[in-house]
Write a structure and sequence with these properties.
about 25% strand, alpha/beta
């Protein structure tokens, strides 16, 4: 069942909490897949989502864990097999693609840390639904098999102060292929991009990348 409150649509997939916000006449949908120890209320994802909506992108944020799972593990994802998490994201993608006002829009996954690995698995398995993939500090070491099967455009982002993230992005780009992959290093940012201005810098790059590929009118940033 779903319901609308002040322009916000929320629903309960069988076990997950999901929130959808739609600007007027959206031209794309960004589905955020959080990392371990986080939730749909990640402050960085919320700020990135707000900036995307101001530019005309609908956003969907969901919890990967049920309430019981989150309480039992302090929100850590590692206790749930990645294929199970990927199935939950796949269900959310299918649900979003059927919603009024979103039908036919390109759906792009925004996965951070372990959520990036989950997003890669979903993109590889569901190219008919997922138009593109953006990872922020993505744990591509957990999705090595998926990388070789992804055919959609991919934006890889990591902070310059996250050496493991930069290394994993470089390895992922080799597996994905340079022709459909762009990589960006956010100056002075760590793995979570908690530093002042880091998430905003990432979002500007991600929005420009989205506009190049899917915006009906290429607007200047």
């Amino acid at each position: 069942r779903s319901f609308h409150v002040a322009g916000v649509q929320t629903c309960a997939l069988p076990i997950l909490a999901v929130e959808v916000r739609r600007p007027r006449q959206p031209w794309a949908v960004a589905l955020f897949v959080h990392g371990s120890g986080s939730s749909r209320e990640s402050p960085r994802n919320l700020r990135a989502a707000a900036a995307l909506r101001r530019a005309g992108v609908a956003t969907l944020l969901l919890d990967l864990l049920t309430a019981a799972e989150a309480a039992a593990s302090d929100g850590l994802l590692w206790d749930v097999p990645l294929p199970v998490l990927a199935a939950r994201v796949s269900d959310a993608c299918a649900w979003a693609s059927r919603q009024p006002g979103l039908v036919g829009l390109p759906l792009v996954l925004f996965g951070n840390s372990l959520g990036g690995a989950v997003s890669a698995m979903v993109a590889a398995d569901h190219p008919e639904v997922v138009a593109g993939l953006v990872t922020r500090g993505g744990r591509w070491d957990q999705a090595a098999d998926a990388a070789a099967r992804i055919r959609q455009p991919v934006l890889l982002a990591a902070g310059t102060d996250d050496p493991q993230g930069v290394y994993l992005n470089r390895e992922a780009r080799r597996a994905l292929g340079r022709e459909r992959t762009q990589m960006v290093a956010v100056p002075g940012a760590g793995h979570l991009m908690e530093e002042p201005g880091a998430i905003e810098a990432f979002t500007r790059v991600a929005l420009g990348w989205l506009r190049e590929r899917w915006s009906p009118a290429h607007q200047p940033l």
